[in-house]
Design goal:
Elements lengths: L14 E4 L6 E5 L18 E7 L4 E7 L3 E7 L1 E6 L2 E6 L3 E4 L5 E5 L5 E7 L6 E3 L2
Antiparallel strand pairs: 1-2, 2-3, 3-10, 4-9, 4-11, 5-8, 5-10, 6-7, 6-9
Length: 130
């Protein structure tokens, strides 16, 4: 029987991302994706996980994902904008960002936002505005 794979978010090797837009700066790591930042040897073929940290006032750049994303906020408060609709998502909340729909996430709180995104496919293709 295979042992469970465990990843600690505070031990991930995060990469700084500059989204090419004003205030589009965040840290990202992909546990279970050995070829991506923060990757481990515990590769997954059925899903993709991304861990992000966003400082107050910053955001993840506008982008579209090929698969729906379950976005779980661990700490902080963020605004998730999908198309023209914006909702506030705070620590302990889960929201769905639909596939093939332009969206962005902005930290509108006062503390670092820690987010986990889960996609039901691996790898997942994302297209960012430039």
């Amino acid at each position: 029987m295979e042992e469970p794979k465990t990843v600690r978010f505070d031990e991930l090797d995060l990469d700084a991302v500059d989204g090419g837009e004003p205030a589009a700066r965040w840290l990202a790591g992909f546990p279970f994706s050995p070829d991506r930042p923060g990757g481990t040897t515990a590769a997954a073929t059925e899903f993709t996980v991304v861990y992000n940290e966003i400082e107050p006032g910053n955001r993840i750049g506008t982008h579209t994902d090929a698969a729906a994303e379950l976005l779980f906020v661990l700490t902080g408060r963020v605004e998730a904008t999908v198309g023209e609709e914006t909702t506030t998502v705070s620590a302990g909340s889960l929201t769905v960002l639909p596939a093939e729909t332009e969206h962005r996430v902005r930290n509108n709180g006062t503390q670092t936002g820690e987010l986990v995104g889960v996609f039901g496919t691996a790898p997942v293709e994302s297209t960012f505005e430039t």
